[in-house]
Design brief:
- The protein is mostly helical.
- The protein has 2 domains: 5-141, no CATH class; 142-430, no CATH class.
- 64% of the residues lie in helices and 4% in strands.
- It has 19 helices and 5 strands.
- The strands form 2 sheets. The chain has a 3-stranded antiparallel beta sheet. Strands 1-5 form a two-stranded antiparallel sheet.
- Strand 2 and strand 3 form a beta hairpin.
- The longest helix has 32 residues, at 182-213.
- It is flat and about 90 Å long.
Length: 455
């Protein structure tokens, strides 16, 4: 930092300002993360960069301009008028939000402000982090461009082309199929199908692993909280609640009575945020909670809803990307070709008056398997490639000793003995509380469109 003593003291006060002071259960950071589908680490970074921006606005005599991500934080903070007023008091300046009208005449003014902002930032804090200042959203930093066609459109096109494809194969392969007995065809077809699925699984995972290798170490996808990784890996935010509750039991913060109800143990309280959230649900309840009641409360709590919102938004962004669509097309083509081979065999048998019951069963089995496999392509990243990266690269660093990290590694094997009987029945329930885990993926102010600030 290149600041004089007065600016340094001001920056320390700005950095120490607690935006959450005026919030209750649904704090500023949780709302910001939930509404934008951001990860916890990225949200904390964005808030810090917002504070830097406001500090620069306070010491600058010229207008400065925020990045889109910082403007998103600013929009939300403006809603909390008491907090924002206190923040401006700390800054020693009433900083006003000047929205851009997107007019041509403004372009030069705001471009000058952006150049000045960068110069002022670098003089005081060093290089700007690209993930915040160079992209319009957190997800824009991923090397993924939007696909021109949705998954549904690709499926419709594939189904329309399938009859033509099958007809061509039928006339090409019919003479050969008539010479091959089902005694040989069915086993060979099954082996071919198994090999194809294994090869495609390996291909998909390598493609997603290649995506991760191209990311900077500071990228949000490589800076996830352990509970975010657990939820991505399992597809269930309930698993994160299991991990946190188990750690509370192991550390002796809560206990289970003979009626299998939870109670807080007085004398020591957790400090880790997720554990505090669950501990407070138990300690502040008017009556002892069963684990089902605790789980239902937890998945509806803002903290775990923020995790769910991030996971949902990330999955949707990846699914709609051109990169993922390319992977899907390869899978569609090869699986379609494989299934067409089986369908042609059935048609050949029918035209020759031969029994086709066995091959029909085999074809239906592989069709169901193919549909399930295709639906889960993007999950190869979130449930296998990404967790494996964290397990083998030490991505969580200091969290390696935490109970949540152990749960990510070992799953249900990491559960305390007294906790296992409470979790097992819940995993067997078909209609679990996942339906309660909605997201709130909107912005309180809509699109940004903000240009800068002034006094």
């Amino acid at each position: 930092m290149n600041m004089d003593e007065r600016d340094r003291k001001l920056w320390e006060q700005v950095l120490a300002f607690n935006i959450e002071e005026y919030q209750f259960n649904y704090g500023f950071a949780l709302r910001l993360a939930t509404e934008n589908g951001w990860s916890f680490h990225f949200t904390a970074t964005a808030i810090t960069e917002y504070k830097k921006f406001m500090f620069l606005a306070a010491i600058s005599e010229e207008m400065i301009a925020p990045a889109e991500i910082i403007d998103t934080v600013w929009h939300l903070h403006l809603i909390y008028t008491d907090s924002y007023a206190s923040f401006c008091s700390v800054l020693g300046k009433d900083i006003k939000h000047i929205p851009s009208r997107k007019e041509v005449a403004e372009r030069g003014r705001f471009e000058t402000a952006r150049v000045w902002t960068q110069k002022l930032y670098e003089n005081n804090f060093g290089p700007m982090p690209d993930t915040i200042w160079q992209y319009d959203s957190m997800y824009a930093s991923l090397p993924l461009r939007p696909s021109l066609f949705s998954r549904e459109q690709s499926t419709v096109v594939a189904l329309c082309l399938l009859p033509i494809f099958v007809a061509g194969l039928y006339f090409l392969l019919q003479p050969v199929y008539r010479q091959v007995s089902s005694v040989y065809f069915i086993p060979v077809y099954c082996i071919l199908g198994i090999v194809l699925f294994l090869l495609l699984q390996n291909y998909n995972r390598k493609r997603f692993a290649h995506l991760l290798k191209g990311l900077d170490k500071a990228h949000f996808l490589l800076q996830l909280d352990s509970l975010e990784v657990i939820t991505l890996k399992t597809g269930r935010v309930q698993e994160s609640v299991h991990a946190v509750t188990n750690e509370l039991l192991v550390q002796g913060y809560v206990g289970i009575n003979e009626q299998q109800e939870f109670s807080a143990i007085k004398g020591a309280e957790p400090t880790q945020l997720a554990q505090v959230k669950v501990y407070d649900m138990i300690a502040k309840s008017d009556y002892p909670l069963t684990y089902l009641e605790l789980l239902q409360r937890a998945v509806r709590a803002p903290y775990f809803q923020a995790i769910q919102a991030f996971c949902d938004t990330l999955l949707q962004y990846i699914k709609s990307s051109k990169y993922c669509s390319g992977i899907v097309r390869v899978n569609y083509f090869l699986m379609g070709f494989f299934l067409a081979l089986g369908l042609v065999r059935v048609l050949t048998g029918l035209s020759a008056g031969k029994p086709v019951l066995y091959i029909s069963f085999v074809l239906i089995f592989f069709l169901i398997l193919a549909v399930t496999f295709l639906k889960g392509i993007v999950l190869q990243l979130t449930r296998h490639v990404l967790p494996r990266h964290y397990l083998h690269s030490g991505g969580l660093q200091q969290e390696e000793q935490s109970g949540e990290w152990t749960y990510l590694q070992s799953g249900k094997l990491a559960l305390a003995a007294a906790f296992v009987p409470l979790v097992a029945p819940l995993n067997a329930r078909s209609g679990d509380s996942s339906s309660a885990c909605g997201t709130s993926c909107g912005s309180s102010c809509g699109g940004s469109g903000c240009g800068g600030c002034g006094d």
